[in-house]
């Protein structure tokens, strides 16, 4: 099953935080510029409430003091002070990010069931709690202008522009145009990549939401497109290296980086996966002229 929401894992049980790379390794602050996104989509249903409004979690990478790179489906239709941004679906400010290795959502958000079906009260209470907590930073969400939620994988890149800058010693770095093509063509090197994220820790044999930033190791195996997605858009990575399974991306990891191993160079961003989140992962290629130019407008 294709997981379009490798992406966004819905917050189902109270303030359940999204977890981490399946069978991954605790990050240990190796990638402090990678954070967990938590956002509200006012048009999406939540089965516990009679009125719409759902909360989701993704992963993003700070690439400057004010810009976080993530997936397009993690920025689309985000609310604007609780109100819908559709049909345009961009410019919403109901998105927060924390760079804590262990997010504190369970500590600051009241469980959904405590609102007795009042979804507006949940939005007001949760947004106020996030605003008051210094570890969570608010921003404005923007999806790629060609993003279409019905075919999310064709332009699955977005940014969150932070309302206040966060200075740090190192940020995620953008690749050059055609970076993955050159990696795949260079047969003299067996380059590895490091996916980082806050997504689900395990789907089988039991569901384990985890709760920390984790990383794993992956290898690029195809840049020609995969699962019907056109060449030049998607890249396929494997986390089965020989006999060792090093962990893969899962729900909540969407938008997270696949760093070139040993660096902060973002080779691609996590876009989708195949259930149950082991074996191969699908990544969106940002090493294209138009995508890099669009991202660059926010950096400028």
Question: Any overview of this molecule?
Answer:
This protein has helices at residues 105-108, 119-132, 179-185, 289-299; strands at 2-3, 9-10, 25-26, 34-41, 54-62, 67-70, 95-98, 137-143, 158-162, 192-197, 214-215, 218-222, 234-238, 240-241, 244-245, 257-260, 266-274, 280-284. The longest helix is centred in the middle third of the chain and has 14 residues, at 119-132. It folds into 2 domains: 10-19 and 32-162, Thrombin, subunit H; 179-287, Thrombin, subunit H (Beta Barrel), CATH 2.40.10.10. The relative contact order is 0.23. Helices cover 12% and strands 28% of the residues. Strands 10-12-13-18-17-16 form a 6-stranded antiparallel beta barrel. Strands 4-5-6-9-8-7 form a 6-stranded antiparallel beta barrel. Strands 14-15 form a two-stranded antiparallel sheet. The termini are far apart. It is α+β, with helices and mostly antiparallel strands. It is globular and about 60 Å long.
Summarize the structure.
With 300 residues, this protein is an alpha+beta fold. It has helices at 105-108, 119-132, 179-185, 289-299, and strands at 2-3, 9-10, 25-26, 34-41, 54-62, 67-70, 95-98, 137-143, 158-162, 192-197, 214-215, 218-222, 234-238, 240-241, 244-245, 257-260, 266-274, 280-284. Residues 1-20 have low confidence and may be disordered.
Which key phrases capture this entry?
six-stranded antiparallel β-barrel, 4 helices, alpha+beta, 300 residues, 12% helix, Thrombin, subunit H, six-stranded antiparallel barrel, 2 domains, disordered N terminus
């Amino acid at each position: 099953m294709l997981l379009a929401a490798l992406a966004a894992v819905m917050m189902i049980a109270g303030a359940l935080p999204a977890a981490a790379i399946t069978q991954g390794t605790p990050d240990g602050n190796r990638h402090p510029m990678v954070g967990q996104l938590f956002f509200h989509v006012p048009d999406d249903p939540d089965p516990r409430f009679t009125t719409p409004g759902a909360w989701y979690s993704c992963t993003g990478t700070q690439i400057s003091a004010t810009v976080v790179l993530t997936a397009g489906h993690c920025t689309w239709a985000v609310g604007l002070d609780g109100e819908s941004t559709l049909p345009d679906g961009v410019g919403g400010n109901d998105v927060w990010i924390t760079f804590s290795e262990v997010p504190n959502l369970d500590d600051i958000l009241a469980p959904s069931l405590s609102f007795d079906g009042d979804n507006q009260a949940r939005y007001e209470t949760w947004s106020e709690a996030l605003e008051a907590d210094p570890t969570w930073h608010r921003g404005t969400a923007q999806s790629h202008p060609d993003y279409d939620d019905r075919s999310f994988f064709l332009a699955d890149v977005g940014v969150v522009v932070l309302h206040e800058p966060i200075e740090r010693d190192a940020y995620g770095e953008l690749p050059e145009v055609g970076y993955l093509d050159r990696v795949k063509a260079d047969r003299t090197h067996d380059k590895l990549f490091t996916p980082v994220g806050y997504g689900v820790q395990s789907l089988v044999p039991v569901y384990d939401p985890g709760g920390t930033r984790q990383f794993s190791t992956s290898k690029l195996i195809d840049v020609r497109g995969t699962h019907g997605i056109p060449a030049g858009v998607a890249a396929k990575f494997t986390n089965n290296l020989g006999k060792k399974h090093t962990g893969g991306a899962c729900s909540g990891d969407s938008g997270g980086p696949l760093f070139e191993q040993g660096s902060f160079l973002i080779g691609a961003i996590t876009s989708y996966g195949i259930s149950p989140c082991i074996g191969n992962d699908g990544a969106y290629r940002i090493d294209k002229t138009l995508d890099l130019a669009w991202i660059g407008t926010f950096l400028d």
